[in-house]
TrEMBL record:
Membrane-protein topology: Multi-pass membrane protein
Protein name: Probable membrane transporter protein
Top-level taxon: Bacteria
Transmembrane segments: 45-62, 74-91, 160-189, 201-222, 229-248
InterPro entries, alphabetized: TM_pro_TauE-like, TSUP
Subcellular location: Cell membrane
Assigned protein family: Belongs to the 4-toluene sulfonate uptake permease (TSUP) (TC 2.A.102) family.
Keywords: Cell membrane, Membrane, Transmembrane, Transmembrane helix, Transport
Lineage of source species: Bacteria, Bacillati, Actinomycetota, Actinomycetes, Micrococcales
Organism: Candidatus Phosphoribacter hodrii
Amino acid sequence: MSGGEWVLLGAAALLIGISKTSVGGLAAIAVAVFASVMPAKESTAAVLLLLLTGDVVAVARYRRGADWGLLRRLLPSVLPGLALGAVFLWFVSDTVVRRSIGGLIAVMVIVQLWQRRRGGMTAAAGGGGGGADADSASGAGGIPEVGGSGTPVSRAEHPLAAVAAGVLAGFATMTANAAGAVMTLYLLAMRVEKMRFIGTSAWFFLIVNLSKLPFSASLGLFPAETLRLSALLAPVVLVGTWLGILLLRRLSQVTFERAALAGSVVAAVALLVR
């Protein structure tokens, strides 16, 4: 492996760490970088181990912020998604799968932006604000806040929303390590406050990524070379998690949500062009 490739992998590992403790979706760039430097299957296994490194730090840091009600609704449907993704890969090339997921994420981003724009127009038509600026009155594109505290009001959830999100996340993570954008868009749609958002995501991905280990091991995706590579890059992931923690402290709720949406756009583009 050349020096330039090591630099790329190091930057990708740093992004993985940052995404785990601040803005999700950035890990999709890392997945694309690894796939461009390493064989596809080996890159998936190496990324999985680095994701788990970040997951452990994220859970240790944000474990108290998790919404276990949301997790209990999401997690049971992840396993069918994992199985569906594994079966699907037998019949369709990984390129088709990645681009299909990228297209779906792009559609989800567009729907999310449309809902926020519609919410902002509704709030403006209602004449609310009383001199407050647009962001503080309606959050990111119409997300209401409670008593000026900056905590969004949770949206009522359709009974099938968590099931659909869980299946899609399981499918996306099994086929392209792309569940981050799916979860980001689901939690944004639910209008989850940023610390609750990060805590819920941390537990979700630790559990999901641990559940992927037996699948990957049974396919022989953890040769000694992959394990050595992951061990060398793990400290870089840890540095990234520290940077992500510092970044999250500086992000308001509104800025966090906008950054999360931007990360989802990046994830969609990375999947479409990879």
